[in-house]
Structure formats: C-alpha cells, structure tokens
Amino acid sequence: MNKKLTTGIQVVLGFLLGIALNVIVFLLGVLLSSRLLSADTSGAILFYGLSFIGAVQLIWQAPVILLLRWKGHKSLALGVILAVSITALLNATCWGLLKAGKIRIGG
Fold first, then answer.
1. Over the chain (107 residues), what is each successive 10-residue block's mean pLDDT?
2. Cβ-Cβ contacts under 8 Å for 85 (sequence gap 6 or more)
C-alpha cells in the first residue's frame, strides 16, 4: 500500500479515536455524576466539565497522545491532536458567541 495513503488512514483513525474518547468520557461523566454524587454537586461538575471541555479533555487526551508517540504511532497521535484541537476550537467559538450576545441560554 502507498505510504501516504497508510499515513492518511492512520490520521483518520486517530481522529476517530479522539472523538470516541470524548464521547466515552462524556458518557462516563454523566453516569458517574448522576449515580455517585448529589444533585447539586453533579450538576456543577457537568456544567464546568462541559463549559471547559477544551481544557478538561487534556486530562485524558494528553496521556493518550504521549503513549501513541512513545509507541511509535505518530500518525495516530496526530489524528488525536486534530480531534483535541477541533473540540477546543468549537468550545472557544461557542464561548465567543455566548459572550458576544449572539447565543442566549435560558431566556
């Protein structure tokens, strides 16, 4: 197989891995916060976790990226970095629109 094609496929697989990790951690956060914590605490954790997803995702994504690079899967690591970057940019865009008054929440 062509080396460029193989590298491209690995980047796409890394991107999908990054998106899958975001979804899994979100679902685990919802499940754990609803089962283990009181309603006030779980609501605050979910709010801040979703509000700062760009920063919070570094908690679980940075070790994955470092592990992939250490194992020699640099293309997979690049795909995960792309997923992290897109998530952070979407979060920043939403906060920018919210602060500019273009999006209203609850009224």
1. 82 94 83 68 69 76 92 93 89 80 67
2. none
DSSP track, 68-104 = HHHTT-HHHHHHHHHHHHHHHHHHHHHHHHHHHTSS-
In angstroms, what CA-CA distances link 36 with 16, 28, 29, 102? 30, 12, 10, 36
pTM of the prediction?
Answer: 0.78
Whole-angstrom distance, CA of residue 27 vs CA of residue 41: 17
Residue 85 and residue 57: Cα distance in Å, rounded? 10
Question: Kind and range of the H or E element at 32?
Answer: helix 3-36
